[in-house]
Design brief:
The chain is mostly helical. Helix content is 73%, strand content 0%. The two termini are 29 Å apart.
């Protein structure tokens, strides 16, 4: 068991940021449903790939916001001495996004 300082994790503390994330997820959900409908309708591979790429970009955009919030929380907690974060932990966080 690690007797040192706790590892960082957290949740959204700003309601506006959370609402924005939820709106984005709902939009992405609609994009994925649209992809399913396009496949069922027999749309071309090119059209499907274009929409898949757009959906991936939307997910990457959300991941960027979540990563920023994660790092902001770490910075706040580190400044108050409540958490330590090693280079290995930062690399692990970045691997989740990349």
């Amino acid at each position: 068991m690690n007797a040192g300082k706790p590892k960082l994790d957290g949740t959204f503390t700003d309601p506006e940021t959370l609402e924005g994330i939820i709106r984005r997820f709902k939009r992405i959900e609609g994009q994925v449903r649209g992809l399913q409908r396009m496949a069922e309708e027999g749309r071309s591979f090119s059209e499907l790939l274009d929409q898949i790429q757009a959906t991936r970009k939307a997910l990457d955009s959300v991941a960027s916001v979540v990563l920023e919030e994660y790092l902001n929380a770490w910075e706040t907690q580190a400044a108050s001495g409540n958490v330590e974060l090693s280079k290995g932990q930062i690399a692990m966080i970045l691997r989740k996004v990349i």
